[in-house]
Structure formats: structure tokens, C-alpha cells
Amino acid sequence: MDVLRIFAVFSMMLLHVCASNWDKTDISTFEWQIFNIGDSFARFCVRVFIMLSGAMFLDNSREFSMKKMLKKNVLRLGCAFVFWSALYTVVTMLISKNFTLEYVIETFICGRYHLWFVPAIIGLYLVTPFLRKITADKKLTEYFLILWIIFGSVFPFLKLLPYVHDSAAGLADDFQMHFVTGYTGYFILGYYLCNAEISPKIRKIIYILGVIGFAATAVGTWVLSVSKGRPAKSLYNNFMPNVLLQSVAVITFFRYEVSKIKWSEKQLKVITKISALSFGMYLFHDSINILFKQIGFGTLSYNPIFSVPCNTLIVFFVSLAVTYGLSKIPFINKYII
User: Fold this and answer.
1) Is 280 exposed, middle or buried (0-12, 13-18, 19+ CB in 10 A)?
2) What are the residues whose beta carbons fall under 8 Å from the beta carbon of 259, sequence distance 6 or more?
3) Rounded CA gap, 254 and 256, in Å?
């Protein structure tokens, strides 16, 4: 889980590096294709964060206390959101020179684009006591996941198809299946994939489908963008079947294949430490992207084959260094990162 968490936070940074110029670059260019491929590859990142949280919080073999969850997890996330949203609000306000009260309030409440994850995970923590009742029963868990796949992933995909999109949207609304849609499905799926035994044959199928999901995202996004004459991100949606397949493949691969790696004690110590800092890195990393934009340094500054991985590595290691420094400060290490 620690190795996967590190891989996910790195992939999230890769996604945001690619996305910085994805919608500003001509879709017929080589640069845009590189951004599209990188963005398509990293689509699983935040889904994996949610799935890892579900694997821990929904495991009924682990002791669970609502009081501890509210006092420790929810309070920490709430404090972190307030701090980082306020910080990013001040920064963007100074950059845009927009000091209106409306802008400040809206920017602070909505948060920087990547901070959406914080209230989303808070919401999942708040309903965890109910969801643990579901995951206590394997059949009920599987039933929930089937409904979630149908109404939370298949129906959103059908809404993209010509001729049937209006009918699919209307039918989905008629069912009113809000209970089995949204990130709750990923939360429960994370628990299921980390606890259910998956045979080698099924694992191979999952890996193949994951590759197909990635290819469908990249190629499909290119085709849709060409047809519309502008970047189209419909297949980037977190609940599209292609993204779901990719996310399932990644977490399964790490559970069964990466877990076979024998790490030294020194390596384990480093992995555990970086994993513990990953949330702070997530919160801080966009500061580097903002700085890059202000000094005119980005993925179009040089060949994107090199700029995408190099800029991502810079963002990763600077975020790691800063977060490590912040972790040494009392209170901040407990409530801000």
C-alpha cells in the first residue's frame, strides 16, 4: 500500500504537469499527443487514493471508532483544507490582482482545483459506519459494486453515445440511484480488491483490460478531440469504464506483483516515510506548478518527451523536501499535512 500510495502521488503530479498545457495546445501537434498520453496514463491516481482509504477504513477486522475517526481523520482533513485553501486563495488573489470579496469567498470555499479530494474523502469518512455494514457481508458488497458499475459507470458512458445519450440520461434520472453512484463505489471497491482472492487467470484478464482502458482513454480522447476540433475530456471522467478498468488493474497489479519485491530495511524505512508524507505532497505540489507558470517554465519550454517526466520529477522532489520540512513543525505535522 505504501509503494502504491507513492506511485499514485507521483502519477497525480504527472497528470497535473500534462494538464497544464493540454487544453492550450493544438490537438494536431506532437506536443498535445504527449500530454494526452501522459494524462491518460495517470487517470487512475486519485481513484487509487480513495480505494486505499476504503481498504483500510472498511475492513471490519480493524478496530473502528466513530469518535476517533471524527477527532483524528475528519478534523485533520478539515484543518488541512481550510489552511491550504486560504493559502492558495491569497496566492491566486495576488497573481490575478482580483481583491473583490466575491472572488475571495468563492475561491476559498471551492478551493484550488486539486483540493476537491479533501471534502470528497471527508464525506466518505463520514458515511464509513454505514458502509462497514455493507462490507461486513461479501454478497452485499458484490451486489453494491454491481449496481455501482451499472449506474455509476455504464450509464455515464451511455450518456456520451450519439442517439441514445438523451434517453440514457433520462432513464438514469428516473432510477434515482444516487446511493450507488459517486466515489462511494471506489471506496468499497478498494476494500474488495484488497481482500477478495483473485485467481491468476482473472488477474491476467484484469491487466489486459487495464491496458485496454488506458489505450481507450488516449485514443478515444484523440478521436473525440479531432471530431470536435478542440480538446475533449469526456473520457477523462473519473467514472468512465476505461478509467475504472485502469484503476482496478493498477491496484491489483501492486497487490499481487509489486508485493513480491523484497525490500531492504533501509528501503522500507524510506518508502514508509515518503508514503506518510504523500498527503502533504498532494496539498503542496500545485505551488510548484504556479511558480512554473509565473516564471514561464513549463512543458512547452522544451521537448515534451523530456519536459513532462523532468518537470514531474522536479515537482515530486521539491514537494517531498518541503513537506518533509513541514513535518518537523509541531501542529503543522498533525493538522496541516
Assistant:
1) buried
2) none
3) 6
Between CA 173 and CA 205 the distance in angstroms is 33
Rounded to whole angstroms, what are the CA distances from 14 to 7, 33, 49, 337?
A: 10, 15, 15, 21
Residues shown for the chain = 337
Spell out the alpha helix ranges (H) of 264-336.
265-284, 286-295, 304-326, 332-335
> Per-residue pLDDT tens for 216-240?
999 999 999 999 999 999 999 999 9
Look up the pTM and report it. 0.94
φ, ψ of residue 71 in degrees (nearest 5): -75, -40
> Quick check: 224 and 235 in contact, CB under 8 A?
yes
pLDDT tens digit sequence for 103-140: 999 999 999 999 999 999 999 999 999 999 999 999 99
**Which residues 6+ apart lie within 8 Å of 234 measured at CB?**
160, 221, 224, 240
Cell of 240: 468512465
Q: Which residue has cell 433520462?
A: 170
